[in-house]
Amino acid sequence: MTDTTVTPVSAKPAKSILEIDARTKKRNAAEKRFKAYGIAAICVGLFFLVALLWAIIQNGTPAFTQTYVTLDVELLEEKLDKTGERDIEAIKKVSTFGYKPLIQNALVDATEGMETEIEDKNLAKLLSDSAAAQIRDYVIANPDQIGETVEFTVLASSRVDGYLKGRVTREDLARDKNLSPDHLDLIDQMVEDGSVERIFNWAFITGADASEKRPESAGIGVSMIGSFFMMLVVLILALPIGVAASIYLEEFAPQNRFTDLIEVNISNLAAVPSIVFGILGLAVFIQFAHLPQSAPIVGGLTLTLMTLPTIVISTRASLKAVPPSIRDAALGVGASKMQTVFHHVLPLAMPGILTGTIIGLAQALGETAPLLLIGMVGFIASNYPEGVASGFLDPNSAMPAQIYEWAKRADPAYYERAWGGIIVLLVFLLTMNIIAIILRRRFERRW
Amino acid sequence: MPNTILILIVLALGVIGFVLGRQRAMASAGGNSRNLHSLPSYYGYNVACATTLPAMGLLILWLLVQPLIINSSVSGLVSDQASEEGASLDLIMSDVRRVADGLDTAVETGVLTEEEVEALDAEQDDIRDLLAGVGFALGSDVTPSTLEAAKSYRAMNEVGDTWKSVFVIATALTGLLVSWRMTNKDFRARNVVEQGVLAILIFAASIAILTTLGIVLSLIFNTMEFFRLYPASEFFFGLSWNPSFSGRGGGSELGILPLLWGTLYISLIALIVAVPIGLFAAIYLSEYASKPVRSVAKPLLEVLAGIPTIVYGLFALLTVGPLLVEVFGQKGFLGVDWMSGGTAVMTAGLVMGIMLIPFVSSLSDDIINAVPQSMRDGSLGLGATHSETVRQVILPAALPGIVGAILLAASRAIGETMIVVLGAGAAARLSMNPFEAMTTVTAKIVSQLTGDSDFSSPEALVAFALGITLFVITLGLNIFALYIVRKYREQYE
């Protein structure tokens, strides 16, 4: 107290508290820096997100257009049906090789008047190998058209397609024996002429996978069906089992060792790496139970076991969210415990359960690693399954496995397909998540 | 009789049982449901359950046991051949099954009749040709003992299938009859049905235990098989990974250490990327951000967690890898020539780090939010700035939880497959250079097991030993992390 009254003369005048001293300045600067680190971290995170999406969109969108060539092909009778009897068996005997001359003639006609030094026999390199098969299929379906001139729209080869998309340049072709820069000059003229054009590629979305040499005709449609059947298995098995398990654990389970064991197991299974589930599927479903390899049912079973913990955890959360007063009211008017749960608690928890299930399904849809082990790669998914049973049991691929398969093939044309496949996959995931959000918004009650 | 038809028959009997049981209960109550102990439908459910459940259980059991019995008795037939030729019993058995399947198809399509199958002789008829005609390509010619085994395999299967149908339907009928007889107005149908439902619920909950058991058993059995063929000490302490692809066994070096090193190195880089970004993002979101910023930034960051790993794998392989080569490669931006190929530890680690950001940030966010407000208020009241409060009060208080979150992220990184399969390369190396390609435990599990359905060579079985190592490491990390997180939560509740 005395200090304040007796001010020593030598002391400096007291500073104003409004004046910021050096230490405070330092502390404030540290504060600002700290905050900036936080903002920077979020910006870096969001930057990665944008970079990822940008890479996907930029690399993937070209897969949705494809270059086609329009040709007038004269279906020469002496090549396709020497006897002239229109005998379908005789027509089928002509292999795709027999159609090559027709295509060559058609190309010579189409490029007439254009400047090029390409020999006639090399013209066909502009087209996909599938062109001959396409024309052959048409002829077998319409044998009466033999002898006529029919207009076909056939796939251009993947390099021509790549050139129009800017993926293949003249420099690349210097070392390429499949196509020469002269071909590209010709393509430029054909584009002006209108016989070569890029159109929307439905075949990519609906079509089947193709062999390594024909990236231009590969599509993701068949593996989409494979994924669909797998998700069906997951839904049919994981939803009832998951809901039943959560009802038991949340509503009936007594506090004992057995319950603890189940709970520990579920929380651990949720964190087991997905590849371990693949090993499980391989050992149990294929090695032990002899289920067919690469079949969607095996994939579905494996993914079911993987998705169960997710569904159980979210279902338990939504059961927990139903207030005890509902249970008390039902029990109070004489319902049994089981009736209370099934008639009152479960319907109220349903929106939450469905949301959790959809998110679990979305997770399962994008999962790849377990599918690699049960043989859903290295397999060309070339045919649609013939029926429901073969949809479950016949070898098929799945979307993520198909993308992986394309990423492994060294051709850049397949990389483009892989990115395109990712767009398709993400569209599905986005739709599922949006449905989940809408469900939650519309039906979830706050008590 | 095909199983689907059998199941349909049992279900149809169940429906009939429901109707009959309900009728009998109503009749015994004189048509007035008030005289019944339970609601009428419970009597129906009771009969339906008694009809279907035991029959279905029997069917499942039968389907599991029959192949085991038949396999063991048929393998007795071909075991002489196996010891003669030195071929593995498994391979011969799969041949037998294939021939039997082929004969089945041949009979179905009408190429052969049952009598002709019986009369087939491996010495005279070309069975391989015959089966190729119905779409079954065989790897080798059929030996007489294989054909005999295939025939007896078919015969036993046929007998087994007949008895299966008989027993299953008999069980269903017995259940129907017994429970129908028990039905009268004083029967406590609801209690019985609820007991049954509870049993189903308990069974559903035990599937989690069965799954774990399945994982552990399938890993352990195959690993033991592997250690019979390959010494365990060399597996755990071997310094080189060099499986031979040519012959069966011999010449392979299957040491796990290079793989473990690759796994840990990549995970370390991933954590170096993810932890600072994730942690600072969490601190900013929970301590500084205004509500609108938080409600936009948090879900956007979590989108990163919802993207499938195959997408990250492709991103690493086709975008990040080439980009890093452009910077660190020979003719690169820095001109340092550290990196020769796009697939490297750095590529995989960086991309995996991006994947883990939301994982670290949302877990840490929860934990920071769990620190009581009174601690913040106390610190701010003493004149600490906001950042000092965070650094000196909140972070120390949340530290155990954050360590737990980082451990969970580490276990995620160690178990991650697709990113390393596509982005890290295939060569197993013990090297310090992060710009070199290395490989991981998960990537090698994939490469040793894909496209190979024969599990008798050590090169394939090693995958199970790798799997069990991975399982034990991630499980240990998870249990430890959950223990820390839980202990910490209790502290403030």
TrEMBL record, chain A:
Keywords, A to Z, come to: Cell membrane, Membrane, Transmembrane, Transmembrane helix, Transport
What Gene3D superfamilies does UniProt report for this protein, alphabetically?
A: MetI-like
Name any Gene Ontology BP term: phosphate ion transmembrane transport
Transmembrane helix listed as a keyword: yes
InterPro entries assigned to the protein according to its UniProt record, in alphabetical order: DUF3333, MetI-like, MetI-like_sf, Phosphate_PstA
Using the UniProt record, give the first listed, main subcellular location: membrane
Start and end residues of each ABC transmembrane type-1 domain: 224-436
The cross-references to Pfam families, in alphabetical order and at most eight, read:
BPD_transp_1, DUF3333
Q: How does it sit in the membrane?
A: Multi-pass membrane protein
SUPFAM superfamilies the record matches: MetI-like
TM ranges are 36-57, 224-249, 269-289, 295-313, 345-366, 418-439
Q: Provide one Gene Ontology cellular component.
A: plasma membrane
Q: Where in the cell is it found?
A: Cell inner membrane; Cell membrane
Q: Name one GO molecular function term.
A: phosphate transmembrane transporter activity
Q: Which family does it belong to?
A: Belongs to the binding-protein-dependent transport system permease family. CysTW subfamily.
NCBIfam families assigned to the protein according to its UniProt record, in alphabetical order: 3a0107s02c (TIGR00974)
What's the protein name? Phosphate transport system permease protein PstA
TrEMBL record, chain B:
Presence of the UniProt keyword Transmembrane helix in the record = yes
Q: Which PROSITE patterns match?
A: ABC_TM1
Record Pfam families = BPD_transp_1, DUF3708
Coiled-coil annotation: which residues? Answer: none
Tell me which UniProt keywords the record has, alphabetically: Cell inner membrane, Cell membrane, Membrane, Phosphate transport, Transmembrane, Transmembrane helix, Transport
Q: Which GO terms describe its cellular component?
A: plasma membrane
Domain ABC transmembrane type-1 as annotated: residue spans:
260-481
Localization in the cell: Cell inner membrane; Cell membrane
Which SUPFAM superfamilies does this chain map to?
A: MetI-like
Q: Which GO terms describe its biological process?
A: phosphate ion transport
According to its record, how does it sit in the membrane?
A: Multi-pass membrane protein
Transmembrane intervals: 43-65, 197-221, 264-285, 297-318, 338-360, 393-414, 460-485
GO function term, MF aspect, one: phosphate transmembrane transporter activity
Q: What is its main location?
A: membrane
Query: What family classification does the UniProt entry report for this protein?
Result: Belongs to the binding-protein-dependent transport system permease family. CysTW subfamily.
Q: Known PANTHER family for this protein?
A: PHOSPHATE TRANSPORT SYSTEM PERMEASE, PHOSPHATE TRANSPORT SYSTEM PERMEASE PROTEIN
Provide the function of this protein: Part of the binding-protein-dependent transport system for phosphate; probably responsible for the translocation of the substrate across the membrane.
In its UniProt entry, what is this protein called?
Phosphate transport system permease protein
Organism this protein belongs to:
Cognatiyoonia sediminum
Lineage of origin: Bacteria, Pseudomonadati, Pseudomonadota, Alphaproteobacteria, Rhodobacterales
